[in-house]
Prior knowledge:
By secondary structure, chain A is mostly beta strands.
Amino acid sequence: MFGLSSKDESRHCSESQNFVGFVYRASSSTGDWNWGSCYGSQNPRDHCRDDGMGGSINYSVSNNAWAHKTRVFLEIIRHGNRFFFRRYADQDFRECVDEYYQDQEAKNYFTDPDESEDGNSTTQNDQRLRYIKMSGSNGTTGGQGMMDGRVDYVQFWNGSNGTMSAPYYLTRRAWERDATGTKPSGVEIGGREMHGATIFRNFPVTGTENTNSDHKCIGNESSNFWDAVGCRIDSQDHPAVTNRFNGERDSEFNWVKYFGYPLRSVSFWLWKEGSPTGRLRGVIYGENSTSHFRARSQNWIDVSTLSSTAGKANATKCEFFFDGYTPRTEDLFLVELEAPTKTDAADGYTIPAPFYRGQSDSSTARVHIACRNDPNNDVDDNWSGQYMRFCNLYSRQSSSQSSGVPTMNRTGATNTAHYWYNEGSVSSDDNWTPYIEWKWGADCYVSPNEANPYIDCYVGEAQWKNNQYGRSRSHQSDWKKDISSADPYTYTWNTSGTWETTDGSTHTNFWDNDSDSLDSYTQTYYNVRRQDFSADEFDAYRQADFSTYAHRTIIMRVYYRYGSFMFFAQPQSSSTFSPTDSSSTPFVRDSSDDWEEICFDENYYGSYDERVIVISGYWRYLRMYHHTRANEQQAQFRYYYYADTPRKYVSHIDIVPLKKNYTHNGASANATTDIMTATQLEIQKRNDDQTSDSVEPTYTTVRTINVSALTDGESNYIRVPIADTTSYRIRCKDSGNKRIAFSSIRVKYHSSNDISFNHGHQPMTATDASLQLNGEA
Amino acid sequence: MAIKYLAGNRITGVAADTKPTNVAVNSVFTETDTKKDFIWSGSAWVAAGVGATIEGSEITTGTIPLSALANGSANKSIGFNSSGVASELASSSGVGAKSAVMEYDTVGKYSSYEPVLGVNVQNRKRDQFATYRSDFSTGHTSGWTHSGDGAYVSGGSLHGQADESTSVYDLYALLGDNKVDVRNWTLRFTFRPNQSSRTQGDICLDYHQKMNPDIVANHKTL
C-alpha cells in the first residue's frame, strides 16, 4: 500500500489507521489492486479494498512480463470533500488511464488536521493525515523475498494540486475573443485550439452590460440572499474541460475522464457598492451543488480595494489562483466573502465561514461581477448558455430567509462534520455571461535550480500542426501547397531512413512516399504505410541515420490509437541509450542528456485519430519509439515532409513567465514564493555553425531582459533582430544556481517577402537590459 | 548702404555696416539685406528673438547645421520611437547596430504569434516545484524511516515487501504548523511491481484488461 496515513512506521497495513491510497495485493492464484480510504478501527489492507475502486491482478504467463516492464503513474488528489484516484500512462501525468473518486469518506473522516493524536488507541478517531507511507503485509515477518513493490518519484503538493513541468508542451497557443467577438478562423467549439491555449478569455460581446440595479452581486437581497457569484461550466465542451482525452471520446469510450488540464488561475472583473469589508476568495463547487466543495483559492483579495465604479471597463480584475485544479463539467467557479478577521491558524485550520458585512437595504455592501445580458444567447455570441453561464449561491448563511433583509448569522463555525458549504443552494442564469479569464498551468516548464539554466526553442516552420489536424487524406494537395508555396527548399524525404527494430531482423523504409518498397512489418493499406506494434511495446524502436549532423524538420501525419510516439535525436550514435521499462532501472524521460527527446505525441483515445507530428531539432541519428497502451496496435503513416531550411523568420518572442507561486496565508492577501529565481534572461540566436557531428553550434546574445520587466502570467512581447536561425535559447544570465520558469513561449513569424518589403532598422544593444521590450531606449 | 535713423528709435542698414552704439536702450537695428533685427541692450547689439513658433515654411532648406542641435548621449542615434516622436535611440554598438526589425507587435492574437516547434532543455531536467519530492537517489532519502526487513531504499527506489514492513515520511516535519491541508493536496508517485523470489511466479496488474472499456466499466464509479 502507498498513500497518506495518520500513523507512523510502527503501524503496518494490516493494522488500524486512517489512510488514503493505493493497495496492491496478490496471492498464489488471484489478486487485485485497489484505491480507497479507511478510518477508525479499519485497516488499509482490508478496507481500502472494499470501496469498489480497482481491478484484478492476473498471474497468467502471457502477462508475466508486464510487471517488470511498465510502471504505473499514480496520483491521489484531494479536491475539497472529494478524493480522486488516477492512474496515468506517462511520466508527465497527462494521459489518464482511469479515474475513481470518493466523496463521503473525504467529507466525513478527513476534515480536521488538528484533532488530537490518540496514539495507538483502537478508537482511531484521529483524522489527520500526516505520513507518506509505504507498507506491506502478509501476516508474517519473514523478511525480504516477499512480493516487492517499488515506489519512486514521490511528489506532494500541500494546499494546491500538482501541475506539470514538461517542456515538450510549451508549444501552445493563446487565444482570446477579439473586440468584435469573432472567433479565429478554423476554431471549433471544443476544438484543439482552445484546450491548447495558455490563456483563454471569454468576454461576452452582445447584449447589455450589467449595472448596480441588475443585482448580479454578493449581497443581492431581492428574494434569496446571494453570498457568492461566478460562472458555471455547463458543458463538457467548455474549453476548461475539453482536452486531448475527452475532447475526442465517443460513446463507447465515454468512461475516459471528465476533467480538463490543470488550471493556474481564474479571473473575474468585480466592483463594490457601498463599503463591504473582508476578503474575497475564489471557491469551486462541483456538480451544481453546495455540498460538493472542491477548492479554495490560494490567494485572497481585500474587498475594500475594489473599484466603486460599475462596468467592466472600470471594474477591478480579480485573479484567483487554483494551481493544479482540474475542472469538470458543472463546476461552479465563484467569488465569495470570507470572515474578515479569521485566519487559517486562528480557525484551527477549519474553513472560515463566509461572513457578509452588509447590514440592511439602507446600508448596502455589495460586490458586483461584470457580465452581460443577452436573452438570445448562443454559443457563437457569448459562449454562455451551455458553456459559461452566470451562477450564484444563496441562503447559505441566513436561516429560513425568504425575503427582505437576511439574518446574518454565521451558521457553520463548528460544523466540521459537513462544513458550512453544505448549506444553501445554487442557481444559474443562462441569459447572463460573466467576463472571465482562464489560465492553464499544465504546460509550464520549471527548470532545476542550477547554473545558467536555459531552454532552446526550435523555430522556422509555421506551426500548422493544429491547422491540419482535422483534414482528411484528400487534402494532401493542400499540404503540398502550404509547404511549397512558402519555401522552395522543402522537399519530400525519400528512402534515406532505415528504421530498425531492436533485433535488427526486420526493417522498412516506411518513410518512402510510394508503395513499391514495402518490407515485412509494413503493409499497404489504403496507400499508406502501416506499422504494427506489439502490446505494451516500449523498448523497440526505429532508427534512421541521416549521415550528417544538421537541423531538420520533419512533419508527418499518423493515424493511430492507444499509444504515443517519442522521437529522440543524437548527434552521434550511442549504445548507452535505452528508454525501456524492462530493465532494472526504468527509463526516465528527463534524466538523459545523451539522446535528446525532441518530440512527443500521444493518442490515448480508444478510437483511431489523425495526428500531425512536427519533429524539429538537430541530429544525425533519429529514433522513434512507440508505446502502446493496450494490445497490439497499428499506426498508419500517411504523409511526411522534410525541410532543412527555415521557411519563416522570427521578429518577436512572446514569453509568458511563471514567476510566483501563491501560497495560502491568512495574514497576507497575495503571499507568494518565487518560482523563477533568475533575475535576468538572455535571448540568444543559434548560429547554426556546427562543423561536425561532435561540435555544437554556437549562440549569440541578441537581447538581454530583466525578469522584473516581464509581467507574471501574461504575454510579454519582445522584439528581436530578424534572423534566419533555427533555434532561440532563453538563458539565465545570473551567476549561481537559479531557476527559470515559463508558462508559454511563442514567436512571431514573417515570410521572406514580408521582411523584404516591410522591415526597418532599430539599433539594439544586445547586452543592454535597460531597453524596453520593444528594443527602444 | 548708409545707415538710416527712423522714427521710434528704429535704425536700418546692412550687415556689413558698423552698428552705432550711441543710441537709446532698446533701439532696433534692422539689417535690410539679411532681414535680421538686433536690439541695443545698452552695451551690445543682441539678435532679436522670434517670440513665436517657427513654421516649417519659414525655415530655408539646409540652413540648420548639425552643430546647432542639442547635444545627446555618446554613441546614440536619433530616430523615431514607437510613438512616432523623434528621440534618441539605443546605442549603435553591439549586434543591434545593424539589426533589421519589424514593426513592434503587441497584439499577440491567435493569428500573429505561433507556438515554437519544440524545445530542448538543459540535461533534460525539470522541477515540479512541489512541496516535497524525492526520487530516492543518493542524497534524497532523508526523512524516511523504516520498520521491518522489507522496507528499505535501494537502487534509487523505495521498496516495500509483503512482510510486516513499513516506510514513512513525516510531512509534519516539513510543513510545521501548516499541516496537511484539508482542502487541496496531491500525492504523485510511480509504482512498479517487482519480481518476487517466491515460486508462485511474478505478480502483475492486468494492465491489458483495464484498458478494455467493457471490463473497466464494471469497476468505474463515474
